[in-house]
Amino acid sequence: MQTLTTTSLRIRKSQLWILDQQALPQRAEWHLCRSVDDLVGHIHALRVRGAPLIGLSASLLLAQLAEEGMPVADLHKALITLRESRPTAVNLMNNLDRMKVALEQRFHVPAMVQEAEGLVGEDRELCSRIANNGAALVTQGSRLLTHCNTGGLATAGVGTALGVIHRAHQQGKVSQVWVDETRPLLQGGRLTAWELGELGIPYKLICDSMAASLMAKRQVDAVWVGADRIAANGDVANKIGTYSLAVLARYHGIPFYVAAPHTTHDPHCPNGDAIPIEQRAAKEVTGVSGSFGDVQWAPVDADVYNPAFDVTPAELISGWVLDSGVVTPAQVAEGIFKRKFD
Ligand code: MRU
Q1: What residue spans of the chain are helical by DSSP H?
Q2: 152 annotated as a binding-site residue
Q3: Distance separating alpha carbons of residues 178 and 173, to the nearest angstrom
Q4: pTM
Q5: Which residue among 64, 89, 205, 296 is buried most deeply as judged by most CB within 10 Å?
Q6: What ligand 1 atom has the least distance to the C-alpha of 148?
Q7: For a substitution probing ligand 1, which of 20, 160, 224, 228 has the most ligand atoms within 8 Å of its CB?
Q8: Cβ atoms of 257 and 222 closer than 8 Å
């Protein structure tokens, strides 16, 4: 494979390295991924996270294993294991479906390398188009609220919702970003705050429960979030807490935008109820862990509900900002998401 660099992935001498998104922002630690077990462990621990990045890292690892001479039957098993590593973000399945086609070629090694490298270049391009399409919707002097992390860390390019914010900031239209800390795993407080700081974009970090009062005070002009899966009726799965922001935005008359590449769209999934939602460990809610250490505040035996994602119904979404353009609620009602995008 060629040398390759994104914010959180590197290929060096045909080896995959990943930036540990659990160690950030305190430490920038890179881990070498040698095996499927390595990468699945990193994905489960959210050291590798974000819908596009999960699919890209799995594809690059498969290409690496093919180059190292792994037999075809084992590559098929590896592909299935990687496909099952997280259930909600459909980018993983979409990317691996393409890698499977490459694996079935007569000369599968160059085909897989070309496909994996192509997916990375493609994601970079998709992010750039999303950023341009979305920035056109941002009005002068906007105060934008975002949830989770949808930036360069989560993609091969400038990001999705955060890419829009970045582009709109370059155009001089963003005065302030409100960053939801994003409990329980703090992707906003740890990662989005760090990325915005690196980009020189002014932000204020808030606890998730503060969004309502900010909206009531007319301090939020629009909400921008990413997506892990867009169903055929336009319902969107994204980080837990997204749905409550959409309800709040509707109540306060604030536009609520979803930014995602077409690789996040699943025309086979009829609606949000059919999207598999990952349930995660109790300890993520009873305390917090990171490069800063482990803290437990709840009773050790506390019973916990910890879904990683929720579903925002299409009726609460003002626009789906894709690489191909902005999809309107009227187009969704006409069934635009029932067809495949490419
Ligand atoms: O559990 P995570 O951190 O992988 O969840 C990520 C999100 O919910 C993002 O909003 C989504 O994947 C889009 S990333 C461009």
Answers
A1: 36-44, 51-67, 72-83, 90-103, 108-135, 161-170, 193-199, 211-216, 242-252, 283-286, 329-333
A2: no
A3: 15
A4: 0.97
A5: 89
A6: 10
A7: 228
A8: yes
Measured in angstroms, how far is the CA atom of residue 160 from the centroid of ligand 1?
Answer: 10
Q: Which of 3.30.160.20, 2.60.120.10, 1.20.120.420, 3.40.50.920 is the CATH number of 4-128?
A: 1.20.120.420
Q: Which atom of ligand 1 is nearest to the CA of 278?
A: 1
280-339 pLDDT, tens digit per residue, is 999 999 999 888 789 999 998 999 999 999 999 999 999 999 999 999 999 999 999 999
Establish whether 83 is an annotated binding residue.
Answer: no
Q: Name the 3-class secondary structure at 333.
A: helix
Ligand 1 atom showing the smallest separation from residue 225 Cα? 10
Q: What is the pLDDT of residues 260-273, one digit of tens each?
A: 999 999 999 999 99
**CB-CB contact of 19 with 7 (8 Å):** yes
Q: Is 298 annotated as a binding residue?
A: no
pLDDT tens digit sequence for 205-221: 999 999 999 999 999 99
Distances (CA, A) of 195 to 165, 191, 228, 229: 12, 6, 20, 23
Say yes or no to pLDDT of 86 above 80: yes
What percentage of the chain exceeds 90 in pLDDT? 97
Which of 179, 130, 186, 136 is closest to 155 using CA atoms? 130
3-state SS class at 65: helix
As a CATH number, domain 138-338 is: 3.40.50.10470
Write phi, then psi, for 221 (nearest 5 degrees).
Answer: -95, -25
Rounded average pLDDT over 33-44: 98
150 within ligand 1 shell (Cβ under 6 A) = yes
CA of 240 to the centre of ligand 1 (A): 10
Cα of 45 from ligand 1 centre, angstroms? 13
With a 6 Å cutoff on the Cβ, whether 90 touches ligand 1 is no
Catalytic residues: 228
Domain ranges of the chain: 4-128, 138-338
